Amino acid sequence: MARRLAALLAAVLLTAGCSTPSSAAPQGFTTGSMAHMLSVRGLDRSYRLYIPEAVQNPAPLVVMLHGGFGSAQQAERAYGWDELAHSAKFVVAYPDGVDRAWNVNGDCCGRPARENIDDVGFINAVGNDISGHAGIDPTRVYATGISNGGMMAYTLACDAGTFAAIGPDSATQLDDCATPHPTSVMHIHGTADQCGAPAITTNGPVTTSTADCPDGRNVVLMTVDGGGHEWPSFATQALWQFFAAH
What we know:
The protein is an alpha/beta fold. It has one domain (26-244): Alpha/Beta hydrolase fold, catalytic domain (Rossmann fold, 3-Layer(aba) Sandwich), CATH 3.40.50. Helices cover 29% and strands 27% of the residues. The protein is globular and about 50 Å long. The N and C termini lie far apart (62 Å).
């Protein structure tokens, strides 16, 4: 009798709509900041994810790549992406590099380069994991990063083909990019940065140069007069405006 009553109660609750909706977000993919784990090619990898309240569905996704010796947690704390995502309503992912570095080809950097770790595959897996559990617009996926993370953004543009635009800061392209994918690029660099600042005439502290490409793509270079190897205070907002337009 007790089992029959329990079954009847379950049926009544289901009919009344009191059960958990099947469309509810899986655990860990609700609003706020959460840590996630993935196994990619036998390696346990991690990333952080921020989903703002009242986010649009499907939503844009920004992948923020930490610099050498950085981490997902440090990148989430340092660059203001969560705060901007909260107001502009997009999702942000912060992958963790192995031993705080990324394999960007060109003999860089650290253990990922020595062991030829598939960081492109890992970051694509991060995007697929998020897309499989949350509503992401596949035409509005973007990558940005600083230093070694900016190099990784270039590597993704060359080897992944899933990013509508990238925004490297204080970085350079080491990948030979044998099979480039059409991608819009905003590159931010300081004229006092010793890692190969571009030669350009500046007028004021920030100079922006833009070149149009086919199919509505753009290449933008922003140079910061006297800027060092750093993430400029305006970079997050400027990059999001660029991403949102592509």
